Request: fold
Amino acid sequence: MSGLPRVCVGGPQRGTMRGMDILFLSPGYPAEMPLFVRGLAQVGARVWGVGDQAKEALPEEARRALAGYLPVKSLWDEEATMASIQNWLGGRRPDKIECLWEPGMILAAKLRERLGVAGPTVAQTTPLRDKVEMKRVLEAAGVRVPRNGRARTRQEVLTQAERIGFPLILKPVAGAGSDDTYEVRDQAQLEDALRATQHVPEIIVEEYIEGEEHTYDTVCANGEVLFENVGWYRPKPLVAKLNHWISAQALCLKDLDAPGPAKGRALGRAVIQALGIRDGFTHMEWFHTPKGEAVFGEIGGRPPGSRLVHVMNYACDADLFRAWAEATVHGRLAQPITKKYNAAVVFKRAHGPGQRIRAHEGLDRLLERHGEHVANLDLSPVGSARADWKKSQVGDGWLVVRHPDLGRTLELADEFSNELRVVAG
Ligand SMILES: Nc1ncnc2c1ncn2[C@@H]1O[C@H](COP(=O)(O)OP(=O)(O)OP(=O)(O)O)[C@@H](O)[C@H]1O
Ligand SMILES: [Mg+2]
Reply:
């Protein structure tokens, strides 16, 4: 690892005179990671990647931005990974250790502790990974969270269900992507959900919250919110997950002072404070109930996936991958980032019996009508293989429409949801 100097001293010039050395876990995966790595390099950091991809398999963008890369056999063999990293560093210590991929966040915290690097500890990171612990901390701080309980056995699920009452949600304590998540409205559905989740080691049984589902996303530095976003899922991710015919949308809203988003911001800021989050991206999900209450859903100490950072970029005409890097390296943004548009991403899933994309029906007509409002169009090309809609959030392509007026943005997004058909044959 040539280049990373053997310095273990602090001091004010550190990081300004010679640039910052950042160890970045999994720089090539998921899809957005190379863009964050590029951002760090652009703002003057040297980025040292560790991942379980071969160097040759890294996306070009990541490879170009990295100062060095250590391939490991499996990131999830934590002891072996930490030993390889220590060996690679040979006594050198990076200024920061970053991981923006949820499953690697505890590993990043363990590494910080082992190498004596500042940043979130294991104890501070655990509530961000364990949905029961997360809600316990927040409830103690007075945040409105769904009633919930942890269950490891059938009897424990039944006991929690009895205590909380229908309707319920059953989901894994450490879940992602709405996998193994069930809405339960009566005893029969509870039995079905129990059968379907037998392989899940730990379940959280939760009060079902009716209402619209939103996000609250931030970039923070030194405990200060430097950028914030309120998103809106249409429909709820669980509904999109279960219904193939739906072209799911996620919006980034322009007016954060409108009554709904303002409630989400207040909730989000209380949550960040209660969890003691100081730096980096945060991604919270919350419910806006028919009575107008904002109820906490979950939070990750990482950026949102599913192209939402791109959507923020289109809403602001900015580069939030780089803005995160500025916050991480310099503790501030180069310039304030504000919303210019409402921006909506629409995810397309192919229809038809075949395994290859055959046509993008309706696209020409829609572009002719609304082309000026389309900020991005990235559909799987005709002839390419169809995605597995159950596994892929992006599916067979995505596009972004944007407009300063929210009503108009919703109309545009709905037209692309309903009238653009990706056909597989
Ligand atoms: N208490 C609840 N009330 C109503 N719906 C819920 C509740 N909990 C979860 N859901 C639905 O299930 C989805 C998945 O749940 P959740 O966001 O907690 O888990 P996840 O799989 O970790 O999601 P992500 O992919 O965002 O990490 C939510 O987006 C929401 O649509
Ligand atoms: Mg979620």
Residues 212-424 form a domain with the D-amino Acid Aminotransferase; Chain A, domain 1 fold (CATH 3.30.470.20). The chain has three domains: 21-121, 147-207, 212-424.
